[in-house]
Fold this sequence. Notes:
The protein is α+β, with helices and mostly antiparallel strands. It has helices at residues 2-16, 22-33, 43-55, 68-84, 210-215, 217-256; strands spanning 62-66, 90-92, 95-99, 102-112, 118-119, 124-128, 133-142, 145-155, 158-168, 171-180, 185-194, 199-204. A hairpin with a 4-residue loop joins strand 6 (124-128) and strand 7. Residues 1-17 form the signal peptide. Keywords: Signal.
Amino acid sequence: MKVLICGIICLFAFCGANPVNPSVHDVVSRALERIDYNNIIPKELITRLRFLTEADILGGSEITVFLNQYADTIFNNLQNFIRQHNWQNVDIPDTHLKISGGSVDLTRGNLNDLDTISRGGDVILTYEGDNKKLVIELPITFGDLRFHYHHHTKVLFISMSGEVDGTVKHIQVSAIASFDFNSNTVFLDHYDMKHSGDVTVHFSGNPVVDWLANAISAVVTTFMGQVIINVMAKFIRDNLRAVIENLNEAIAQIINH
């Protein structure tokens, strides 16, 4: 995830660098040289962005470019990269849910199929000449994400333990980042995550009382959707912030070198 975000941010920063200002061009170019793309960023995209920079066609006007085709290639490469490094799964925190007449403790959880990440809409790159700022809109979506927990459920005088499996569908992320050439700084301007509410939950492991657990699954489902959203939101937001912090540190080091 960090490789994808860092690559995209650096690429659009490079695209907007104006050779009239050698310091900016030098900062971005040297920052790009320090990034290991791991075959994720298409070389053709780098070549075309370099051409735009050297041709000095950005000027002081506002220019908008759609990067959908390149984004699809990047996401396809990222999917393979995630699988190769076995990053499809992440641990999710223990959760205590209060329900009518009892409670549900969810432990040892994990979230699967993060390699279903893909483009969730138009990837738009805008150069704001008046503000000397480059802005990228990056919509991200995931396929069906499976989760698994061990549960301990208490309802009235009945106590049961077992496994709970479920699926969250249609998670979408909207992120907007920008590079300000006045301060040579990258910002995360907007971040939001949502899903359609399509969550399924199934309890298993105790045949005698599974019927009761599944009877309350409708209640648990309401909570589980938000739990998964919170986990995913933190996961992606933390990666975005980490990448931006690292990139700003790298740029500062280059400027002060």
